[in-house]
Amino acid sequence: VYRQDLEPGGVFTRVSKGHIRIGTFEFFASKGDYKSIEKLADYCIHRFYPQLKQSQNKYLDLLKAIANKHSDLVAKWMSLGFIHGVLNTDNISICGETIDYGPCAFMDNFERSKVFSSIDTQARYSYSNQSNIMKWNLSRLASCLIPLIDSDENKAIAILEESINSYLD
């Protein structure tokens, strides 16, 4: 790679089953567009989670399936000493894959509070906080799905809270 001089370099290609993110659901929720959230959720079920099509509550089961994939993903990251760097909802694929690496790295020496993003001055995305921030991201997705879970908002919230609270416990 030529920068100011010749430097060693490589090509990094992002490949994923899909690039729909939790932030995609938040976009429609911010506009109160629940018909689009339902269409998006149905598309995600059809494309990525077809086993849920006949489910009793396919939207709740979609959330659970996404949470399970991310639980496995974060466990793999942490077992390798990987720190994502910026785990906001726009960087979280509903497929449970790492798609937006941003400032990320593998630790050379174990340090629970290690961060790799220069903007992460409060260690929100630190190595030890990755499971907590993923749980927070999943709660953001859950909040988008409230109208699809039950017509009684309080009942839907209780159902979703129970599901999210079981994540990584």
Q: Can you tell me about this structure?
A:
It is a single chain. Helix content is 47%, strand content 2%. The protein is an all-alpha fold and 169 residues long. Helix 1 crosses helix 4 (130-149), helix 3 (58-79) packs antiparallel against helix 4 and helix 4 (130-149) runs antiparallel to helix 5 (153-165). The model has no long low-confidence stretch (mean pLDDT 91).
Which percent range describes the beta-strand content?
under 5%
Mean pLDDT: 91
- Our measurement of the CA-to-CA distance between the termini, rounded to an integer number of angstroms, reads 45 Å
The largest pleated sheet is described as:
2 strands, antiparallel
Strand order of the largest sheet: 1-2
What is the helix/strand order? HHHEEHH
Shape: globular
Question: Count the strands?
Answer: 2
Q: Over the alpha carbons, how many angstroms does the gyration radius reach?
A: 18 Å
Q: What's the assembly state of these chains?
A: single chain
Q: Helix segment count?
A: 5
Structural class: mainly alpha
Helix content: 40-55%
Low-confidence stretches: none
